[in-house]
Write the structure tokens for this entry.
Amino acid sequence: MEENEDACKLERDAIIEEIYPQFKKFGGFLRERGFNSASSGNLSVRRGDKMYITRRGSMKGDLQPCDIVELSLEKEDSGIVIASTESYIHRNILLQTPALATIHCHPPNTVALSFYYTMVLKQDYIVPIDVEGHYLLKKIPIITLKNPTGSKEMEDEIPKLLRNFNIMILRGHGVFSRGPNLTEAYNWVTVCEESATAIYKCTQLGMDVMKMQGQYDQW
Ligand SMILES: [Zn+2]
């Protein structure tokens, strides 16, 4: 038994050593770009039947190896009490989509547009009007939930949407993205926020962004 535990610990330490530089890099990028407050957001990756996720309340701009928590994907795991409060959402995304990595963060222009689109424009998705966003994302869905933080509703609804989209928006909260690695999951976040920023600025200039949807092909 003890030998088994030692082998598991060695394996966990080796995986954390491998993935830590990625967590540190992308946690830092998210913080630098203002996509998270000091301790909000979370990152995770899958390795076999385990997931590795940021510790609850960890500082994403200054992650340490001890801020990465190992959790079983299949069984209840006591590590859940120190892992991110959104661990079950990450777990379901990793189990129900092709994702091997997921990122959750709060890009401000995207969050602002999630209110604007659903409450003013009455549309539950964003169609990017910039060239790259249009080409890469086509459409970004927005969902509105009664309990938009760490809830069972989120665990069910967010993975469902991410089966068909690489990134989705939870109204008034932030985004969840997925990819084969953190690099790609992070890329979707930046493309989404860049598109949201273009729409935000065009709206400030008095332009009708609804009329600009789908117009890119006709320029
Ligand atoms: Zn959040």
Observations:
- The longest helix spans residues 2-32.
